[in-house]
Amino acid sequence: MDALRGAQFSVDHQPLLDLQALPELSADARRCVLNLDLYQHVIFISTNAVRFGLECIDDYWPQLPVGIAWYAIGDATAALLAERGLAVVTPGDAMHSEGLLARPELAQVAGEKVLIVKGEGGRQTLASALRERGATVDELACYRRTCPQLPAGALAGRLARGPVAAILISSGEGLENLLTLLSAKETTKFRDIALVVPSPRVAAQAQEAGFRSVITANNASDTAMLQALQQWRAGD
Question: Domain named Tetrapyrrole biosynthesis uroporphyrinogen III synthase: which ranges (predicted)?
Fold first, then answer.
């Protein structure tokens, strides 16, 4: 938000995801944590996966085991892991599962063990592809994402009062929650609002939902989203 204000945008903030730590790990998740030193690759999906995941791991591993290749989807996620002294592999500008799958470190993983630290649910692209490459893949779900609870019409009222010219959506799930919080009639009313989204996949979701002006950023980072928004403003 500070970067947006620094670029002379007027900003209103409405989270589209509520995050909750799981009350306790499942038996399978606890087994994954206890056997952390048996994995060759550990992948953190997001900054939230680092925050919630390391909290779970620290309960069993005050000192992280050595000999593991650590991965992060996104620079912010990598930065949090680096604070723990970990050398991290990232997909670079392609901050998504497909980008990470293109890394040479994950090209030959047959017979190796991979742990994906994530929230409940979510895409299975990464796990499915690694299993197809012959890896044994486990998932450590350490938090859940829910849709914020807002009174009926509350989000539509905020959009109308602005008026809001553009909305930044950082994930497909965030877009789904936006549509949940707006009725079908309200979505139609606001379909001319520009949406800045992090990938072609989310752009396709937005267009299918009826939004007419969809701007696709290079990735979900703050820098890329701001750059896309500035380019949209310059061409508006």
Answer: 3-227
